[in-house]
Amino acid sequence: MALQSKLPSVGTTIFTVMSTLAQEHQAINLSQGFPDFAMDPRLIDAVDQAMREGANQYTHMNGHPLLRERIAGKVGHLYGAGVDPQTEITVTPGATYAIYTSLTCILRPGDEVIVFEPAYDSYIPTIEVNGATAVRVPLQFPHYSIDWDLVKKAITPRTRMILLNTPHNPTGSVWTDADFRMLETLVEGTDILLMSDEVYEHITFDGYRHPSILKYPVLRARAFACFSFGKAYHCTGWKIGYCIAPPALTTEFRKVHQFNCFSTNTPAQLGLARYLENREAYESLPAFFQRKRDLFLGLMKDSPFRWLDSKGSYFVLGSYGHFSQEPDTDFAIRLTKEYGVAVIPVSVFYQDGKDDKVVRFCFAKEDKTLEEAARRLTSV
Ligand SMILES: Cc1ncc(COP(=O)(O)O)c(C=O)c1O
């Protein structure tokens, strides 16, 4: 039987490849973006209680009503956005699913979607599986800022969507208020929609606070904003997130969601809803992760890497071009095999493999993991 792949150029993701290599070589895994520390036992207790109370059957297709209310309360408090839990919030099995659904309910063959590169690896396959075309706009190395003239030039009558991600994986760069204002100017008067990936909303440093797209009424009116509880509460394995979008977009989103997973894990939703009563749960996160970033950079000060600015996310990029000209994929494999620390080469976040000789380190790890990684890496 002849099978024509819909995604012929997609292989196994680099995250799986590097994690497998890390296991084979008993390397410390700073490659994949997940914490190795325990989550808050109060959240575990809240989910346990929900299960014991019998919250074990399908809940509402759009999300547990109490969780949607809590989400609305949170975004009202943080971003001053009035969001209707009935018509604008849908709880999903993770942010990747929310991103997939946002794109799938809109895109048609022939549509173009503007994507900033380096890009989280799900975006382009999701565009392509829907028959649309990714139009790639590079972020400007080494600060990974946006060249708005390039964005302007990339817009055509076929542009259906622009995807944005702030704080940004893999670079740790963030959007400024000026970036959001530029985007407003570009899209006003067009039919261009937006997908804003904000999974690292709570992980920001040095006094910078995340300006969600929900703060900008002109943008919000045309945006799917996607979030992840896994990233926020150290439970990436729960795969639970949500999408906020205006009613007309949410209606389309739910048409796809209804027949894809229908509803998301009930006890996790109820547990999270009760846990979110406590604002401290998310208000403590910037300081918590900034300490991790600063600890890691302090420990690595005698290593040969040059560190690029990380303003948010779990990640910091280390530049090595001044002491090695190896391709970053070879360099990452060598770090894993010879020094016992797995990292991610940034070229894999570009379709054309652009190699600026930088690798991504995830510092969302136990202090002792970071200490041991630094000990191993100072001899590079
Ligand atoms: C930018 C970005 N978006 C989305 C996700 C996935 O979130 P979730 O695990 O909730 O699907 C990740 C995870 O690495 C990410 O880095």
Automatic annotation (TrEMBL):
<dbReference type="Pfam" id="PF00155">
    <property type="entry name" value="Aminotran_1_2"/>
</dbReference>
<dbReference type="InterPro" id="IPR004839">
    <property type="entry name" value="Aminotransferase_I/II_large"/>
</dbReference>
<dbReference type="GO" id="GO:0016212">
    <property type="term" value="F:kynurenine-oxoglutarate transaminase activity"/>
</dbReference>
<feature type="domain" description="Aminotransferase class I/classII large">
    <location>
        <begin position="27"/>
        <end position="377"/>
    </location>
</feature>
<dbReference type="InterPro" id="IPR015421">
    <property type="entry name" value="PyrdxlP-dep_Trfase_major"/>
</dbReference>
<keyword id="KW-0663">Pyridoxal phosphate</keyword>
<dbReference type="GO" id="GO:0005737">
    <property type="term" value="C:cytoplasm"/>
</dbReference>
<dbReference type="InterPro" id="IPR015422">
    <property type="entry name" value="PyrdxlP-dep_Trfase_small"/>
</dbReference>
<dbReference type="InterPro" id="IPR015424">
    <property type="entry name" value="PyrdxlP-dep_Trfase"/>
</dbReference>
<comment type="similarity">
    <text>Belongs to the class-I pyridoxal-phosphate-dependent aminotransferase family.</text>
</comment>
<protein>
    <submittedName>
        <fullName>2-keto-4-methylthiobutyrate aminotransferase</fullName>
    </submittedName>
</protein>
<keyword id="KW-0032">Aminotransferase</keyword>
<dbReference type="GO" id="GO:0030170">
    <property type="term" value="F:pyridoxal phosphate binding"/>
</dbReference>
<dbReference type="InterPro" id="IPR051326">
    <property type="entry name" value="Kynurenine-oxoglutarate_AT"/>
</dbReference>
<keyword id="KW-0808">Transferase</keyword>
